[in-house]
Amino acid sequence: MRPEFANPSAIPLPLWLIRSDTDGAQIPPEAGALAATWARSQNFTGKPGQICLIPDATGGLAGALYGIGATNAPGRERYALAHAAENLPVGNWKLANSPEGFDVAAGALGWLFAQYRFTRYNSAEPPKARLVCPDGVDGERLLALAAGEYLARDLINTPTSDMGPEDLEKAARDLAARHGASIEVTVGDDLLDKNFPMIHAVGRASDQAPRLIDIRFPGTGPRLTLVGKGVCFDTGGLDIKPPASMLLMKKDMGGAANVLGLAETLALLKLTESMSLRVLIPAVENSISANAFRPGDILTSRKGLTVEVNNTDAEGRLVLADALALGDEEAPELMISMATLTGAARVALGPELPPFFCDEDGIADALYRAGRDAADPVWRLPFWDPYEAMIEPGIADLDNAPSGGFAGAITAALFLRRFTGKARAYAHFDIYGWQPSAAPGRSKGGTGQGMRAILNALPEVLK
């Protein structure tokens, strides 16, 4: 499905955004005396998410009041209007006012996010309350943001039976075709011929051959390379996961979904015209078979670094390493990796706040601020150099799964950093890519994380 605003030619119902204070709901005079009287009779106080439907003189629906809380009051929900989108009656709606301090554009984006439904396997219908794009808001930008989010959610929500490496390649080819980008895919044993040995090792046990997807968008300017982990299902390999840990492993390609979603938004906004955008996705399934890679194996990476495999369930960093090494060879101004990489990140920060790692303070600050302002929060963790010894096993250059269980997100990030060095700057996002339970604007299931933080930071960091 595609995000849409309501057709403004249809007569919309007014939706009044109402603040609350110590005296109760602050109904603007423009809403009319009937609205104020009715709100009092319904005990409408303007608390966040409260809805009060306003009748007309004949008993029909004249509009609605929607509570947005007190000015400067901290909100627990990111998307202030998403609850309205999901709970207002059928019809077209238009914001009738814009209270001081209320971000109308963010509210409209939340409304679009609330419209999302994953309908590939059932006939779930989106909410019937539709919003006319508010005056003064860049509707095309919001639609582009929502389109990228929808794409990421769709890809993550699709089970591996329909989103294996071949299907992920098709999604990448479809995106490239939509935007006039070129695409090159290296498949199966060709990975060995072209020196992607770790991608091949992780994916060779699957019925669907491993592959490296390489998309280049037309455009000139600073070079931005996005690398997304595309593990379409992760059994854990020979270090097999318990059944409960496999239930969500269709989402282990969430990094790939997020970089494709971000690329979709960048292309729709035509920002790819003023940069050199490249997207790299190692697409594999970590399966179990007689030819699966084994604990104790030592792999030689594209960069020439040797890696001791101490856990076949730490496979994401292996496939990312070869892709990062390829991207680094062009020395882009900025290279970003996104991956559903470690449980340690979720233990530290939970499912909604993904950590990121970056050595450049200015870029890290810009990413944090952009995420905060775009309701796409991210939190910086350090590339902590004293922990480098933890990823050096002695028998090889690197260890893919240090023992001890400490600082798992940091040691994984340090591992990935070893495959960069020529890029002017590198940032890694350890995302979850999944909404455990439904919330306003965030349906249960696949979700984008970090995309808008990166997008909004680009003007500052990609110079």
**Portion in beta strands:** 15-25%
Low-confidence stretches: none
CATH C-level name of the largest domain: Alpha Beta
Reported by name, the CATH topology of the largest domain is Aminopeptidase
| Intertermini distance | 35 Å
Count of helices?
A: 14
CATH architecture assignment of the largest domain: 3-Layer(aba) Sandwich
The main sheet comes to: 9 strands, mixed
What is the total domain count?
Answer: 2
- Provide the CATH superfamily of the largest domain: Zn peptidases
Work out the number of β strands. Answer: 20
Radius of gyration, in Å, reads 24 Å
Shape: elongated
Structural description of this entry:
The chain has 463 residues and is of the alpha/beta class. The protein has two domains: 13-121 and 130-137, Leucine Aminopeptidase, subunit E, domain 1 (3-Layer(aba) Sandwich), CATH 3.40.220; 144-461, Zn peptidases (Aminopeptidase, 3-Layer(aba) Sandwich). Helices cover 31% and strands 21% of the residues. It contains 14 helices and 20 strands. Strands 7, 8, 9, 10, 11, 14, 15, 16 and 18 form a nine-stranded mixed β-sheet that branches. Strands 1, 2, 3, 4, 5 and 6 form a six-stranded mixed β-sheet that branches. A three-stranded mixed β-sheet has the order 12-13-17, with helices on one face. Strand 5 (91-95), helix 3 and strand 6 (129-131) form a beta-alpha-beta unit. It is elongated, with a radius of gyration of 24 Å. Keywords: Aminopeptidase, Hydrolase, Manganese, Protease.
